[in-house]
Each structure stands twice: as C-alpha cells, then as structure tokens.
DNA sequence: ACACTGTGAGTTTTT
DNA sequence: CTCACAGTGT
C-alpha cells in the first residue's frame, strides 16, 4: 500500500487513487479535503507522474501556500515543479508568456479596484454622466459581472437606457486599460479564456502540460473560471474537482454552484465520491449543522458525522438589547478563559462588519485582547498604495510612464500641485497622446511658472531616483524613496495615531520586500524553471517582479512565529462568517442570529435562492466550531441610528430544540420591556484611565488634563477613549487624535 | 490649494 | 450612529 494512503478513510483513499478520468469529490466541512488533495498529488508523483504535468488551483493565496507547503512535506523539493496557485496567479503566469497574441505587452500591469473606480469616474466625466444617478461602483459591478460571464461590450443585453450606458462605459473603460497596458482581475480570467480559445497552439501546449488537474472549492468557480478549467482538461480529462455545494456563499460575486452540480453532465463518466466523516467537530455541532442544511434542496445530500464524541449542547442566549448580547459573550469568554480555554480559542462570528464595533469597544474596555480579521486589507491601505505607486512610476519612466501612479502621488506629500494644474496637464497630454509625466516640461505654456517649477521639481525627483535604483538593494531603495520624496517626513510631522500606524505599515512593507528579495524570488525563479539566478537580476528587474507579485496579494503573511510562541497571539478573533470559511476554532460565538440580520433583510425580501444562500452561510458558521458553539441574538438593537426589533432567526427553529441549552435568564415580556435599558452613557474619565493602564506605559490621561506637545504646542484633553486621546490644540491645529502612549505628550 | 462642514448611504468581498 | 465624499469658504 502506498504510504500516501495511510490513515485515510475508505472514501478518502478512493479519492486519492482515482487518478484517471474525471472525479468529483463532494467534501463536507472538515472532512479533510486539503489532506486528500495533497496526498492525491503525492500519490500521483509516487506513481511516476512528472510533477511538471500536475496542476492544482485554489481560490486564495493562503490556500495555495498551505497546499504548496503540505505537498512539499510529502514529496520534497520536486513540489516546486507542480503548479499550485490561485486561478488569478495561474492566469498571470499564462498571460505573461502569451498575452502578446491578444495585443497587450507581456509586462502588463494589474489594476486594483480603487484605480478601477478612478478610471470609471474619468470615463463617466467624459460621457457627461451624473455620478449621483448611477455611481461608478454600479458600473464597475456591471462590468465585472459581464466579464465573468465572458461578455464584451457588444454582447450586453440592451433592455433599457442604463444598459446602453453600461455598454458605453464598459467600452471606454476597456479602451483605457488597453491603452495603459493594464488588466483588471476579471480580465485575467477573461483574457485567458480568449487566449485558449483563439490560439490553438497555446491551448495545445497547456493541455499537454496539465495532464492532471485539481480544482479546490469548485462550488465557487464563476463562468470564466469554469471555462478555463474545461478548456485545459479537455484533452487528458484527468480532472479532479473538490468542493461542497452546501458551502457556496459567493453567488453574489458570480460564483455559480451550477458548475459543481452539472459536473456529471460535463463528464458523463465522472466518478463521484462523498466525504462525510468530519474530523473537526463534536457530533452535537454537526447535528445542528445537518439540521439547518437539510432545509435546502440538495442534489448530493450529505450527513456529517464524527467520532470525536457527542460534546456539549449548543448554548443559546436571547438578549433583550444589543449591548446585553455583547456583555453575555464577554462574560462567557471570561469564564472560559478562567477554565480550560484561552482567549485565542474564542471567535466571534457575525453577518455584517458593522456588528463588530460594539464587541470591539466592549472588549477593549474589558481589557480582553482581540484582533479583527478583515476590514481594510494591508495592500489597500493608502500608504502602501502610495509607495507602490512611487515604485511603479519610477520603474516605468524609461518606457511608458504610468499615468495612474503619477496621478496618485504627484501631490502626495503635498507639493502645491493642485487639481487645476493637473487638469491642464491632462488636457495637454491628451492632445499630444503622451503620458502625463513626459508632458511636463519647462516650456509648457498652459501653466503658470510656479506650477511648472513644482512639476519640474517632481519630475527631476523621480528621474533622480530612477537613475540610481540599481545601486541599491530593494529594501534600501524603498528606504531611499521614502526619504527623498518627503513621504516619511510628512507622516512623522503629522504625529497622529493614523500617521504613526502608517509608518509602521511602511516598515512592514519594507520587510515584505526584503523577504521577497531574499526568500521568495529564488523560489519563484526555480518554479518557473528559469535558468536565471536571483543574483543575476538588477534591482529594477527584481522590483518589477515584486510589484507584479504584490498585485495578486491581498494580505500580509501570518505574524511571525516568535510572536505566536510568546503568546502574543492569544487573542479573541472577530470576523464575518464569509471571512471564516475554511477556518476552525475550539469555541465559536455566532451573534446577531435574528431575522433581518441573519438572514439579512435583503435576502428575506428576495426570498428563494437568497435565503438558501443565507442558510448555507449559517451552515458554514456552525461548522467552524470544534468543541463549543454559542448562538445568540437580541430582541432589540440599534441599527443605523434607530432601534429595530427582530424575531429570532428562522434558522434557529430549523434546529432540533434538544440540541440547545438555553442560557438566557427567563424574563417575562413585561419585565424585559419595563426594565430600564442599560445606560448608554460611558463614564468618561475611567475609560481613559483603564486604557492607559492597559498599555502599561504609565501615561494616564483624562478629559480636562492640560498637556503640551513639541510641535502642536499646549492643549487640553477632550476625551480619552481606548489607547487614543483627543486633544484640543490652538485654532491652528484643532483637535488631534494621538496615542495615549505617545512620548511627545507631556502633562503641564 | 486646502480645510471644514453638510449630506447621504450603510451585506457579504477569496483575486 | 458614523463614515466617506462633495461642495463651500478662506
């Protein structure tokens, strides 16, 4: 027996050995699908399949990284020859080699959503469209939807005037991208389909290369992704897709469960294997999950079971108000932390991001460490996008100076170059059909001399930096850019909480870049099978590779291991249910389990499929828990400024009541409604004191304290909330938010 | 050119 | 309630 079949259950072993022909693995939550996939790949290699001929596609970078690592543990260094990547990264790789067939340059850049919006805004302005009537976001969503369905501007259905507008915006938007040799995330998929369809020899090459194809989370594929897989698998037909139709929660983003459900139709000889044994949760939790999901129609009904023991009942709590629910969760977390659990074992899951705030505030006040997953992703932060824009502009000025990057940072830090100057420059550049950067010249007669001087100064600054890139390492060059451009000084001078956090983020960026140069780049070249050694590359070449790599990253890697060992990571985790997919936690609190919130109001209105998707979301949430599951809701809560009263979620009634242990104090209706609502006023002084103590830096402020600051002068503390103090300085500086621990703040 | 103030909108977001 | 953005005032 192959070593890769050890400790597998029968179904898993079957999935691993069914290497030839189409295979659909319906893998329930926690059924060990990643393990099956990695062992299947290892099994293939052990059977003599060349790693070069294996492909494994995931959706997230994290999943790809994990699969790569686990595969390497099984088969060693040759794992590097296997393409294990996300859909998007795979497409970039294919397109870099072949995109010239489609009229783009192989050094195409990838545009992110913020830049997409600004292009759409420009387009709308040029078409005299009112952004209030139809916001840029709307057009972007429609364009994305069209691209996912492989539709071009001409393919759009024209049922009303808006559709016509969408078509026009789409057309111009696309033209601008092509002009700038840029593609968006959807283009990566769309262009790959086009390439494979239009270039038979390219298709043949990849069909021959990828003799064994694996797709993870197949239920989340959209139409374009479906087509890519289908095209690639068409010759050898050794296609293994893994997924769970019950965990399809991204239909609103174009994911089509139909893809996994019709797999049998696409491949009549498909083998289908269901993985129902769960290795994650206690049976009670799975029973609750099974109860919920059986209310959805399912083509492949699954019933999860585990041999990890029955476990405790699901703990239910019905609060009368939002903050009471929060206090209950905190109380339970405290109790657990005094018993056999750590803060890091506990996770709070909610339907909408806005629910996090109450928890955040209360946790902070209670001095319980926590982290919020999600929110603004690292690479979307202003300072990160700014430094990337600087680097991109610097690298691009030789060939084709990048307008989008230019516009982003030409006045960041403030150089006195305002909207009027930029508009005039744009007009001139448009006529000359040149880039903005190249259009700047001393003899530009449409601008005043001050504006010209400032622009020229900026131009020289960038040229100067561009001329010395190759004298530095990546890390040192980034350092240099931050210094020379005045970017760092701008942040230092600002001295607000935000600006200091930005400096930290830029430091983090530098270390990401250094890690890339030292560790990732050599691997990358090895993966490509390139003859080149990392040492042979110039800094500009390395930077270009870094920028490409970054565009596909949405998050920084996990915190480094030292921190975890020191217990720094012993924090309660807060996140949306969507963000929790694929993760597991010993203790899970699902909060806001109410009609109107979960299922969310809009889904209740829509009914049908929308409710089914909410139900799948509930299923995902429940199956995240390993040992303890708490579900809570509130009769009344503050939402968007006013109170709303909600009934308990219908999903609760779908679960057999024997699986619950009701924890809420039995209150009669009258008692609850007569009881004074917990007072909302926060005791002002203690808040600041507690927070300051929390930081342990000895700075304790409360409102009214007189302080002095080296650059802002004298001020008075207005409020102290958490680690932040708001201080009123003179009229010149106004109210600033600073960190309580900031050494520059001195009491007078 | 920039800071301030008022208005409007507020599900989820792997790349 | 609170955040983001657009429009106004200096």
Question: How would you describe this protein?
Answer:
The protein contains 31 helices and 22 strands. The chain has 748 residues and is α/β, with parallel strands linked by helices. The strands form five sheets. Strands 11-12-10-13-14-9-17 form a seven-stranded parallel beta sheet. A hairpin with a 2-residue loop joins strand 15 and strand 16. Mean pLDDT is 87; it is low at 558-564 and 666-698. The protein binds a DNA duplex (15 and 10 nucleotides) through residues 58-63, 86-89, 110, 112-113, 185-186, 188-189, 217, 220, 249-250, 252-253, 255, 351-354, 357, 374, 377, 411, 414, 416-420, 551-554, 576-579, 581-582, 600-603, 613, 617, 638-642, 734.
Kindly list the characteristics that best describe this protein:
single chain, 748 residues, alpha/beta, 7-stranded parallel β-sheet, 6-stranded parallel β-sheet, 31 helices, 22 strands, DNA-binding
């Amino acid at each position: 027996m192959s070593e890769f079949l050890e400790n597998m259950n029968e179904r898993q072993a079957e999935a691993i050995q069914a290497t030839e022909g189409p295979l659909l693995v319906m893998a329930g939550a926690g059924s060990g699908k990643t393990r099956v996939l990695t062992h299947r790949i290892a099994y293939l290699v052990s059977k003599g399949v060349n790693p070069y001929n294996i492909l494994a596609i995931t959706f997230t970078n994290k999943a790809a990284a994990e699969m790569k690592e686990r595969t390497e543990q099984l088969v060693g260094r040759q794992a590097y020859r296997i393409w294990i990547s996300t859909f998007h990264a795979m497409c970039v790789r294919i397109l870099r080699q072949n995109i010239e067939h489609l009229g783009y340059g192989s050094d195409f850049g990838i545009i992110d959503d913020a830049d997409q919006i600004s292009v759409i805004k420009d387009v709308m302005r040029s078409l005299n469209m009112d952004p209030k009537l139809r916001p840029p976001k709307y057009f972007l969503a429609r364009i994305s939807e069209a691209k996912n369905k492989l539709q071009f501007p001409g393919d759009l259905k024209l049922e009303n005037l808006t559709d016509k507008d969408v078509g026009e915006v789409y057309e111009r938007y696309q033209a601008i991208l092509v002009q700038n040799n840029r593609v968006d995330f959807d283009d990566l998929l769309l262009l790959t389909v086009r390439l494979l369809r239009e270039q038979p020899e390219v298709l043949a090459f990849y069909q021959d290369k990828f003799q064994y194809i694996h797709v993870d989370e197949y239920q989340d594929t959209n139409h374009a992704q479906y087509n890519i897989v289908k095209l690639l698998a068409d010759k050898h037909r050794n296609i293994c897709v893994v997924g769970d139709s019950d965990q399809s929660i991204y239909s609103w983003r174009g994911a089509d469960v139909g893809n996994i459900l019709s797999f049998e139709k696409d491949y009549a000889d498909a083998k289908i294997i269901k993985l129902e044994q769960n290795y994650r949760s206690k049976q009670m939790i799975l029973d609750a999950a099974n109860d919920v999901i059986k209310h959805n129609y399912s083509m492949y009904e699954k019933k999860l079971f585990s041999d990890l023991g029955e476990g405790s009942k699901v703990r239910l709590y019905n609060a009368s108000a939002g903050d009471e629910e929060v206090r209950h969760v905190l109380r339970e977390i405290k109790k657990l932390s005094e018993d056999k659990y750590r803060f890091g074992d506990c996770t709070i899951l909610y339907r909408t991001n806005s629910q996090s705030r109450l928890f955040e505030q209360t946790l902070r006040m209670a001095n319980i460490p926590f982290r919020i997953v999600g929110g603004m992703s690292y690479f979307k932060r202003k300072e990160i996008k700014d430094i990337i824009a600087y680097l991109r502009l610097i690298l691009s000025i030789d060939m084709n100076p990048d307008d989008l990057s230019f516009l982003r940072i030409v006045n960041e830090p403030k150089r006195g170059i305002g909207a009027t100057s930029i508009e005039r420059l744009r007009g001139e550049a448009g006529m000359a059909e040149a880039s903005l950067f190249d259009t700047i010249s001393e003899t530009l007669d449409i601008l005043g001399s001050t504006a010209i001087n400032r622009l020229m100064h900026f131009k020289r600054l960038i040229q100067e930096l561009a001329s010395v890139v190759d004298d530095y390492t990546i890390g040192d060059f980034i350092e240099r850019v931050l210094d020379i451009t005045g970017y760092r000084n701008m942040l230092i001078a600002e001295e607000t909480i935000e600006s200091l956090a930005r400096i930290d983020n830029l430091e983090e960026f530098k270390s990401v870049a250094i890690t890339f140069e030292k560790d990732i780049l050599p691997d990358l070249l090895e993966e490509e099978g390139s003859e080149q050694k990392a040492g042979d590359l110039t800094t500009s070449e390395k930077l270009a590779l870094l920028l490409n790599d970054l565009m596909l990253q949405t998050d920084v890697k996990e915190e480094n291991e030292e921190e975890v060992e020191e217990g720094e990571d012993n924090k309660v985790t807060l996140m949306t249910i969507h963000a929790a997919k694929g993760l597991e936690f010993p203790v899970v609190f699902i909060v806001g389990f109410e009609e109107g919130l979960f299922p969310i109001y809009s889904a209740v209105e829509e009914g049908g499929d929308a409710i089914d998707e909410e139900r799948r979301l509930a299923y995902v949430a429940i199956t995240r828990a390993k040992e303890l599951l708490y579900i809570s809701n509130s009769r009344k809560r503050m939402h968007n400024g006013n109170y709303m009263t909600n009934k308990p979620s219908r999903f609760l009634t779908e679960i057999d009541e024997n699986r619950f242990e009701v924890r809420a104090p039995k209150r009669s209706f009258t008692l609850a409604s007569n009881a004074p609502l917990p007072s909302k006023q926060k005791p002002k002084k203690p808040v600041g004191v507690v927070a300051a103590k929390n930081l342990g830096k000895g700075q304790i402020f409360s409102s009214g304290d007189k302080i002095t600051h080296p650059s802002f002068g004298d001020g008075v503390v207005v409020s102290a909330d958490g680690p932040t103090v708001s201080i009123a300085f003179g009229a010149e500086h106004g109210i600033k938010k600073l960190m309580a621990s900031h050494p520059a703040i001195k009491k007078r």
